[in-house]
From TrEMBL:
Matches recorded under SMART domains: HATPase_c, HisKA
Location of this chain's protein in the cell: Cell membrane
GO MF term set: kinase activity
Organism, scientific name: Actinoplanes couchii
Annotated PROSITE patterns: HIS_KIN (PS50109)
Protein name as catalogued: histidine kinase
Alphabetical keyword list: Coiled coil, Kinase, Phosphoprotein, Transferase, Two-component regulatory system
Length: 448
């Protein structure tokens, strides 16, 4: 809602144009507008007044303040002529550049209204009701000056504007000189940087060529290693299996009796051969995974049945009464994955946890997290220092000082489990604190 007008006046003769100009400047000054804005507002009012006076010889002028939103000085100039809005808008097009807003409307068929507005600066004095009354009182006592007085003021403003333009021109000349000097420096620096960049690019190209060569050599070495592991593992598996079979025949009840020392030595041979067969099988599996020869078979997996099978097959390994082996009911009943590979990952993690847990518990659980499924194997074993969390996924690496409570470790289970996790589109990570146990989390997408 617009506040009570500051002042009203009527345009009838040319002398009134000077009065409107003077009042516009006076009101703008009282409301806190800067000197240049005062001049712009006064010039806009005198130009509109001149046009309206030429059109009708009569116009009403109202000065007001718009308090809502952004405070603004608003001047309304109305005259009786109708149907002139479009033509006046064209005539006053340049005037609109002196104010923030200018509108020309037909006032309901009774006349034409020109509305001008200029926003008050943020640092303007606060317009309290008392201050508004004070401004009205001052405007009411305003004594219009003569055209000569107004011309003198305009000349002073013009001189000030010219001085300001001259100062700006001098400053611009100085800035241009500095810019030219800066440009010369920039061009010199640019040329130097261009030469250095060209030299660097040549070095980078040579480095990339060397890296490509090294990468090719590394791929060839990796493929050769995988082939070697696969071939050696395959060739070793048959004789190792034969050794285990022969050891079983020697201790069979149908064979000739052995002395106690012979029985002990044969049992050592069988145990060593079994450990070697486990290592050979691990190497063969790892070689297949590295060579990309494992292709998952996607199908719906019944997690409740899988967990039950893991519980049954691994419970004989958890023979220590001090360790609770817990396979929780799955929080996710069905899951699309490769059942064999998933079971192999979980079996490796659980077997590893049972080996290195002396007291406490080994626990398997699963839950949906967002669009993934998280399989968690948590134990209360020896734990792993933070700086070794990634190293435990390297082939043949075992945490210094750790000792399996039961069985022997080959250092291949965790690397193989992580590679299988990648084949299934997921990831395997470990969180562990020495003395508090370890938590291995397998995260896989629910849909593949």
């Amino acid at each position: 809602m617009t506040a009570e007008p500051l002042m009203r006046m009527r345009l009838r003769v040319e002398q009134d144009i000077f009065v409107v100009r003077q009042l516009g400047r006076e009101v703008a000054r009282e409301l806190g507008l800067e000197s240049q804005d005062q001049t712009r507002m006064a010039t806009a009012l005198s130009e509109v007044g001149r046009v309206l006076l030429a059109e009708s010889g009569d116009a009403d002028v109202t000065f007001a303040v718009e308090p809502n939103g952004v405070p603004s000085l608003r001047v309304t100039m109305a005259y009786p002529g109708t149907g002139q809005a479009n033509r006046l808008t064209e005539q006053l097009r340049q005037v609109g550049r002196l104010v923030d807003t200018m509108e020309v409307d037909d006032d309901g068929g009774t006349g034409t209204v020109v509305r001008l507005a200029r926003r008050l600066p943020s640092g303007a004095p606060r317009l309290t009701p008392d201050r508004m009354d004070e401004i009205r009182s001052g405007l009411a006592q305003h004594v219009p000056g003569t055209p000569l007085d107004e011309l003198a003021i305009q000349n002073q403003q013009l001189i000030g504007a010219l001085d300001e333009v001259r100062a700006q021109r001098d400053e611009l000349a100085r800035l241009n000189a500095e810019l030219e000097e800066t440009n010369r420096g920039v061009m010199a620096l640019y040329n130097q940087l261009s030469e250095e960049l060209e030299e660097t690019n040549r070095g980078v190209v040579a480095l990339y060529a060397e890296l490509d060569e090294k990468s090719a050599q590394l791929r060839a070495a990796s493929e050769a290693k995988s082939r070697f592991l696969a071939n050696v593992s395959h060739e070793l598996r048959a004789p190792v299996t034969a050794i285990i079979g022969l050891g079983r025949l020697l201790t069979d009840s149908g064979s000739d009796d052995l002395t106690s020392e012979q029985s002990r030595q044969v049992e050592l041979i069988r145990t060593s051969a079994s450990d070697l067969l486990t290592l050979v099988n691990g190497l063969l599996d790892l070689a297949k995974a590295e060579a990309g020869r494992i292709e998952p078979t996607w199908a719906e997996v019944d997690l409740k049945a899988m967990f039950g099978q893991l519980r049954g097959t691994l419970r004989p390994l958890a023979t220590r009464p001090e360790v609770d082996f817990v396979v929780e009911e799955p929080g996710l009943l069905t899951f699309r994955s490769d059942e064999v590979l998933l079971a192999q990952i979980l079996r490796n993690l659980l077997t590893n946890a049972i080996k290195f847990t002396e007291t406490g518990s080994v626990r398997l659980s699963v839950r949906p997290v967002g669009g993934d499924a998280e399989f968690v194997v948590a134990d209360t074993g020896f734990g792993i220092p933070p700086e070794l969390h990634e190293r435990v996924f390297e082939e043949f690496y075992q945490v210094p000082g750790s000792r399996p409570v039961s069985g022997k470790g080959t250092g291949l289970g965790l690397p193989y489990a992580r590679r299988l996790a990648g084949i299934l589109g997921g990831a395997l990570r470990v969180d562990s604190t020495p003395g508090e146990g370890s938590t291995f989390t397998l995260r896989l997408p629910i849909t593949s």
